[in-house]
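Milestone 3.1: sequence recovery, worked example.
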């Protein structure tokens, strides 16, 4: 199997035979390592690329398979150590955007305007949350009980 640096076609043929024979097994191993078929195929292809580059140092097919599996584990560890800046797809997208600060203020103002149109005894005192008399003696519609915007 050792074909030396100078013999590119012999190296290519030997590597092609190795890849054809072991690709399925290597992808299954990578699937166990990554938990995802697309990531497993990417990992296997990267490991095979590195195996091809080192093919002149590998003496037999058993060593090539061990080299490739070791490379897959090392690539996976390296990838997990690297700081990840990708995106995680959300399981759902919000139907409407979050309300802006201006929208929230407008809603609060509208609610307060409606509250001020209610009869005095149906509006609770803002400081004690009672609809009867406030223990502090303030009526529910007094300016001290009115909340600030």
């Amino acid at each position: 199997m050792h074909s030396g640096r100078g013999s590119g076609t012999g190296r290519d043929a030997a590597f092609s035979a190795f890849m054809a024979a072991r690709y399925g097994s290597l992808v299954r191993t990578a699937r166990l390592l990554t938990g995802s078929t697309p990531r497993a195929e990417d990992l296997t292809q990267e490991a095979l690329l590195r195996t091809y580059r080192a093919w002149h140092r590998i003496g037999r097919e058993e060593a090539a398979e061990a080299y490739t599996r070791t490379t897959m584990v090392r690539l996976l560890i390296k990838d997990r150590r690297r700081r990840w800046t990708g995106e995680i797809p959300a399981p759902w997208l919000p139907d409407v955007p979050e309300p802006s600060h201006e929208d929230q203020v407008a809603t609060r103002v509208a609610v307060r305007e409606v509250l001020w149109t209610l009869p005095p005894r149906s509006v609770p005192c803002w400081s004690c949350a009672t609809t009867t008399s406030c223990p502090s003696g303030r009526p529910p519609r007094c300016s001290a009980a009115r909340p600030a915007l």
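Confidence is low (pLDDT under 50) at residues 1-6. The radius of gyration is 35 Å.
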